[in-house]
Here is the input.
Amino acid sequence: MATRKLWIYSPDVMPRLEYTAGVIFSTVLGINYEITSDRRKIGASPAIIYTNEKVKDQFVIRPSGLLLDSGLGHASPEVSYLDEMPLLFPSEGGSIPFDLFSAVFYMVSRYEEYLPFSPDAHGRFKGTASLAFRGNFLRMPVVEIWSRYLAAELVRRYPVLTIRHNEYNALVTIDVDQPFAYRSRGFLRSMGGLVKGLAGVGAKPSDRIKTMSGEMEDPYDSFSYIEAQLKAHGCEALFFFPTGDQGEYDHNPPYRDHDYGEIIRRYDRLYGSGLHPSYRSAGRLKTLRMETERYWSITEHHPEKARQHWLLLNMPDTYREFEEAGIRYDYTMGFHDEPGFRAGIARPFPFYDLSREKITGLTVVPFQVMDGTLRQYMHLQPESALEVIRSLITATRKAGGQFVSIWHNTSLSEGNGWEGWRRVFEETLSMQKV
Here is the structure.
């Protein structure tokens, strides 16, 4: 039986509806579709009627008004449940009990992050403040769940429709905030650290001296271990490197440092890499551009991929700056304080600039979990951390999505409170296998 096109009828075809339909039917489900404001085009074809008009014998979704609006209102939907599936924007008189289009748009556009909120000390939107966390569905890829629910209901009515089967995959990402504890620190910084150590503050002077003289491996140099594990488990990986100037929150070596440059070039060649824009670069396009130029001087290619240091994501400014700097893929979409699906989706998706009401050319690649979240924010022990990771892998696998995790070379050094976390890393790599 030939696959038929799905029509979506709406009296008004707005950019929000066009974007949301693309996420649901192209990004997630793989259904050929077309949006129209002319019902005469539909005939007897499979169709979704997205209207509050009176309709008989059609598949209807009743709109809440969010997709027909423009600008920022104060949409703050209540959360209800249909069995175990969370619902937003409930409605009556339709073929399904909620405005699924508005629910998807609310999540993937990050609508709530454009509204006034109470940031943390670094200006970040907290996971605990999100509707998903408060509604107890942050660890569920609800956009995937809603899309599959819609697909099942559509196929029940229109068996001629076929749904794409999405293959699960996994990506390990390594943020190299500080490649070395002692090496490549410069004379003044090294002497300052040595003086502090002699005063009983910070690293042992003997360890610093042995490392700087080459007698001992640098404690943060876990790259050989990481590389061996990635190879042993057959993982796809991506490394993010900073090239900014040193500061209170930026501890990378100078971008001209020889040893650091060798690490960047090696892992860019072996796995691929992206830019890790500095803390200082957030909100400073000129600084971001300078850092992209430095990255190019090391790798001899422009950084198309980036993840903001400290996950400093400010909607929509960060993404506008990325686009201005020529960055095409963002890997910052995830919360610093809670694991889960920040945008409710388990695969890359296009960024919609809500302030400008337009689909952009930037692709957002969300992550589900970060090592620092589990230990430093949630204060989990390795065994409990593994349970969280296992549940996220299971949810992502069920959705046929992409499981993305963040690790740091420093957290895999087995020191400074990270003892036992290599086992978490290794078991994650085993669990996430396709």
Observations:
- Residues 190-197 have pLDDT under 50 and may be disordered.
- The first helix runs from residue 15 to 29.
- The domain at 169-180+220-431 is CATH 3.20.20.370 (TIM Barrel).
